[in-house]
Design a protein that fits this description.
By secondary structure, the chain is mostly helical. It is built from four helices and no strands. This is Sulfur oxidation c-type cytochrome SoxX.
Length: 138
């Protein structure tokens, strides 16, 4: 129920995807993402929140995380499909991970009210982040 004077926006449905082994081989949007937009998402402490746990090549960002693998070299360690699955639903690869599922809406616990019923990132944003991480080589 929307309050008077507000419009309730319907969330777009999640794009279907197929998990093959330890990856989602096909882009969620059917096209590659924008690496520059992906870098902005990863470095943004309000949007991607990646730097709370990860560190990476972001000299402008102080206080990067050390709870998770460094993002430097991610494009050498994992394929785009493997990166995609880790962002979409890291628990499929590592059941005990603390990394949030960025593109899942069901079966989650401790979800902030703003994210109930919607993913943290859109399909396009996932593809942008994948495109950026794939460029990270040592």
């Amino acid at each position: 129920m929307a309050l008077a004077g507000t419009v309730a926006l319907a969330e777009p449905p999640l794009q279907p995807y197929a998990v093959v082994g330890d990856s989602i081989p096909r882009p969620l949007t059917g096209q590659p993402g924008d690496p520059d937009a992906g870098r902005r998402i990863v470095a943004d402490r309000q949007e991607g929140l990646c730097l709370l746990c990860h560190s990476g090549p972001f000299p402008e960002q102080p206080l990067q995380g050390d709870l998770a693998p460094a993002l430097d070299g991610a494009g050498e360690r994992w394929s785009s499909g493997q990166l995609r699955l880790r962002i979409v639903d890291a628990r499929r690869v590592s059941p005990g991970t603390i990394m949030p599922s960025y593109y899942r809406t069901q079966g989650l616990v401790q979800v902030a009210p703003a994210f109930v019923g919607r993913p943290i990132l859109t399909a396009e944003q996932i593809e942008d982040v994948v495109a950026y991480l794939a460029t990270l080589r040592r």
